[in-house]
Structure formats: structure tokens, C-alpha cells
Amino acid sequence: MYSNSGYLNDIDIDILDQEHELSIYSCGNYRFISRKEMVTLRPNGRIDYQLIYVAKGKADFEKNGVRKELAAGSLILYRPLEPQKYYYYAQNTPELFWIHFSGYGAEALLDAAGFKEQDMLEIGFTSEYTQIMNKMIRELQLKRPGHCELLTLYFREFLTLISRHQQEKGIGSTKIKSEIETAVHYFNEHFSQELSIQDYAAANHISTCWFIRTFRQYMGMTPMQYITSIRITKAKELLETTDLTINEIGDLTGYQNALYFSRIFKKTVGAAPTEYRKSVSYING
């Protein structure tokens, strides 16, 4: 069995920390190579929290007397003093990561990540998860200056990614997400040019209606609304920090028609470009 782990106090002990919002005590990785099985039984649990992530294969876990097999991409939470039973079998080729932690803010952070009403989440697999946990293991092993602060930052990042995954579950497949993220990147790079949603969809061999509907579901606005938001944000920046004319700013942000630019700007911001510049100049002295 391959094992790589790090401990805050160089030993695997459970700690209850109520002085800090969040404290990370240990993080590790198990990968079965030759050992046939490993069974962990803690009838009285631990006084800290434990998260176990199934990165590959599958493993069995028991909660409230019910045994369940979890496949790769699953995450299970054991709370303080909760009995722990889990079973790893070589035939299932499991690879697992675990994190022990506590702190007075731990429960609120877990609730925000999706554990408010359940203890098992399907979060899928992404290298971002394992990269974060490997960083945590390294920090616990080396204990360089600032390691406690970095550990909490890494763990918060991990929980935030879990929360994002839960919120995006309705979006669809990874391929769909990739399509939208590619579009977002393209719009941010080419917002100063004339953009047509129909032309973009055709060039990428996707339906215009599907693209608009899926983009709105993913980003909370239509593609054209998103492009407008990029352009107006950039226009505001140029009005605040340069002496470029209104016509020049409109041209730089994708509006060749100055009157149309002014109309869109006022509709979005609530003031015409000239008025906005004067108000900002007044505030900044």
C-alpha cells in the first residue's frame, strides 16, 4: 500500500480547536498496491472532523448502520464523535485522500460547501482536488513559515470548488461547460471587435438557440448581455483613467457608432459617458 501523509504535530492525533475558525491537523493519501484490504473501525469516532475523497476505484463506508459503496469522485464527511467504519479492498483499486480538521467555523464552511443536509457528495474528479490536497500534505510535512495560514487557504479553496461543483450540477457535461468557458474567454479577448452570436455559434458548429440558452444557464445572462457588461466595464475604466474622447472610447470598446455607445452606456450605468466622467472627476478631486 502506498501512503503519503503529513501531520501538524508529527503524529496522528485528533484535536478539538475552538480558538480558531479553522485548523487543519492532517492530510494524506492511500493507494492500494499489494495489500488485500484495510478496515478502519472507530466506534466512538474522533473529536475532529474528517473528509475522505475517493479519487479512484471505490470503497465501502458505514453511516448510521448503513453500509454504502462509494465510487471515484465521491466525498464523505464524518463529524466529531460520529462512529467511523470504512473498508478498502485491493480488488476495488481504491485511491483515497483524507483531511482532519476542526475550528469554531468548520460547520458553517461545510454547510456552504453542500454538507448542510447530507454527509456524502458526488463531486466528480478533477486534478484540482488532488493538487490542493497534495499541497496540504507537503505543507504539513515541511512546516515552513506560514504553513498554518496556507493550509486553511488551501482547504477553503477545496471547499469552494466543491460548492461550485454542486451549484453547476444542472449545467450538464464537462463538454458543455468547456463550450461556455471557451466562449467566455473568446468574448473577453475580442470584445472590442464586432461580435455576432449567430456567427460565433456557426463557427463553433453549435446551435444558436442552444448556445444562448446554455450560456444564460451557466453565466446568468445571455451572451450579448455578457459582452455588453465587458464593454461597459472597460469603458468606465477608460473614462476614469484616460483623457480619450467619447468617440475613441466607444471605438475601443466595440462601439463604432458614438451615439449608440452613449445610449447603451446610459441605459446600463444610468448616466451618459460625459456625465459619468464628470462625476468621477468630481469625486476624485
Assigned CATH class of the largest domain: Mainly Beta
Main sheet attributes: strand count, strand direction, barrel closure: 6 strands, antiparallel
What oligomeric state is this? single chain
- Kindly report the average pLDDT value: 90
Query: Looking across the biggest beta sheet, what order are the strands in?
Result: 1-2-9-4-7-10
CATH fold name of the largest domain: Jelly Rolls
Q: Can you count the beta strands?
A: 10
Structure description:
The protein is α+β, with helices and mostly antiparallel strands and 285 residues long. It folds into two domains: 2-167, Jelly Rolls (Sandwich), CATH 2.60.120; 174-283, Homeodomain-like (Arc Repressor Mutant, subunit A), CATH 1.10.10.60. The protein is built from ten helices and ten strands. The protein has a six-stranded antiparallel sheet with strand order 1-2-9-4-7-10, covered by helices on one side. The longest helix has 21 residues, at 147-167. The chain is elongated. The chain starts with a strand and ends with a helix. The mean pLDDT is 90.
